[in-house]
Amino acid sequence: MSAAIITxxxxxxxxxxxxxxxxxxxxxxxxxxxxxxxxxxxYLFYLGKSLSGPTPKEILRVPIVFTICxxxxxxxxxxxxxxxxxxxxxxxxxxxxxxxxxxxxxxxGTAIEWRHLIYDEGFTIQTxxxxxxxxxxxxxxxxHVLMGLMALFTVWLLTLLGNxxxxxxxxxxxxxxxxxxxxxxxxxxxxxxYVIGR
Amino acid sequence: MSTExxxxxxxPESSVPFVERLHGWVTTVDHKRLGLMYIxxxxxxxxxxxxxxxxxxxxxxxxxxxxxSPQVFNRLFTMHxxxxxxxxxxxxxxxxxxxxxxxxxxxxxxxxxxxxxxxFWLTAFGGIxxxxxxxxxxxxxxxxxxxxxxxxxxxxxxSRTFSVGHSTxxxxxxxxxxxxxxxxxxxxxxxxxxxxRSPGMTLGKMPxxxxxxxxxxGLVILAISPLSAAQIMLVIDRYLGGHFFDTQAGGSAVxxxxxxxxxxxxxxxxxxxxxxxxxxxxxxxxxxKAIFGYPIMVAATVAIGFISMSVWAxxxxxxxxxxxxxxxxxxxxxxxxxxxxxxxxxxxxxxxxGKIEFKAPMLFCTAFLFQFLIxxxxxxxxxxxxxxxxxANSYFVIAHxxxxxxxxxxxxxxxxxxxxxxxVTGRMxxxxxxxxxxxxxxxxxxxxxxxxxxxxxLGMPRRIYTYEPGRxxxxxxxxxxxxxxxxxxxxxxxxxxxxxxxxxxxTAGNDPWDAxxxxxxxxxxxxxxxxxxxxSVKSRRPxxxxxxxxxxxxxxE
Lengths: 198, 557
Hints:
The structure holds two protein chains of two kinds. Chain A is mainly α. Chain A has a domain at about 75-200: Cytochrome c oxidase, subunit III, four-helix bundle (Four Helix Bundle (Hemerythrin (Met), subunit A)). Chain A contains seven helices and no strands. The longest helix of chain A is centred in the middle third of the chain and has 32 residues, at about 90-120. Chain A starts with a helix and ends with a helix. Chain B has one domain (about 30-555): Cytochrome c oxidase-like, subunit I domain (Cytochrome C Oxidase, Chain A, Up-down Bundle), CATH 1.20.210. Chain B has 15 helices and no strands. In chain B, helix 2 packs parallel to helix 4 (about 115-135). The two termini of chain B are about 25 Å apart. Mean pLDDT of chain B is about 95; it is low at about 1-10.
């Protein structure tokens, strides 16, 4: 029976299939997008429905610098992957670390913002509906940044130990997809929280 | 066709010590073992959920019954619903997909074997967490044990005020954990079907079972994620003092309903699409005809996938949405009946003029066709908002969705059990016992769920622990309970059959049904690597081509 299968005619079509890493990452991104959508919907739905203050306009400051940090890290990770694809390990290590540093700067920015809100303004997740939706949406994003940073850092360590080579470019590229996703979610969160909601 | 196989040396299982065998199963990343573990796990919870149903039916058999207290009754219906959806049908779906999809597409394993094992253990842990609530949920409050907020856990019942202790936390966390497991499994199924097909198997030649599981996995990603998001919100509300569903602080109870049913309705299709896939494999084989209208079947499946994302609020007609919203959801609900109807006609057309063999799998699939049709028709009745205002929250609704889940889904899964039993174990099941199982369960099903519609129409609400005599509900409720006894007997026969056939059944051979998909070309049970040589295919029925070289399918496709 198995022997008989071999005798079957070879298919004429060229047999190439999509990369499973990319397909899986796109599926994960779809799932994550659905999770974020629900939080965004909740944020928009509850805009202006808080029964007590403060309101977004009173206490939110727009984190422009940190937003630029995060968004430019998409460019640096792209350059890093490009370097790895052409075998330039040194450039890859540098761009990759810069990506990590920019991401970490963004996370630090969120920490500073939260510290200000919690300790200076006394504004917490319990304060009102705005607090609940704000801290959960921004926190959910920050959590994803943190996950991404951990992955970036692991790859950076592996590179320093000499374990990342040119042939790993595809895998690194899949991780870069996730990082691009984290960045693009921030565009949505930024628009919703700091532009529309403010 | 030659049944000769390359003989692979196989160590007799019994010579390996038990601890080592157990270790092998616990640490396995093999898709077949994981699939079987999903299925066995679902069977255990099927028994538990069934016993819960049985207790509820004993309580409701006669008016003013005191078999269980109202508190226990609340826990029973919550646990029964949660168990059956999340820890019976979902693991069954993933179990069969895990076991069969790689075999059907000629792959050696899933795309990510370790993610696969991780997903299974998350799901398993979720179920154990839910049932640990019987012991652990008391907390320091001494209040409540198992969750008692109903399987859709409407706010504000789930708030700290109304649900003290930890029962709701167990419910939330177990669904969160198993939800992540489901998303992992779904990602794996998508990557497997898209990236691991054997040479020549274009998407247009992929077996329908694999196709339906692909669409199912897409729906899991889009449906379970909102549920996870909503559960995270509930956890924030309960643990961090958030106000998402806190009406006292301006939060909305209705938005929980939206978030839950955005998950809840696609979930129905997550459960039923694999059942459609099973029917699409079994009906052609036992009608001895190729499936009728393969491209339309695929198109209808994808259409169901899309439309199912826009029908959720038909669960909420009585909440008081605007009439525009009501109209939209009535129309989209009517629309989804169209692709589903197409599927039913295609199965009938497959049977039409075929040489139908009523073996147990075919019996279950035939019953599925009729029962799923009726379930769809009562669904359309409730899909019309004005009629739904009369029926919502009554036993009519319960009868309707049990018709879908038991009459539609469980029946096809029973068919799948019998159809693939020889492949999985290498032994044939006992046909007499299987037919006995079918008839007992069939009679029990109809006694229970046909007659359950009537007290619903007469106004009996769901989730009441007892009722007054003299409202015309007594006889119907008694018949419903009697039906459960038949169903329980059927399940008993089913389990006896599986066990007996596993040890004593006749050797089945590799291809007992003279079937056409790739899983029947390897040995029974399949070796760990599935196929010694990667098969290449030219049509939708590779084994037909092999058995009939003079008239292969690829000439016509």
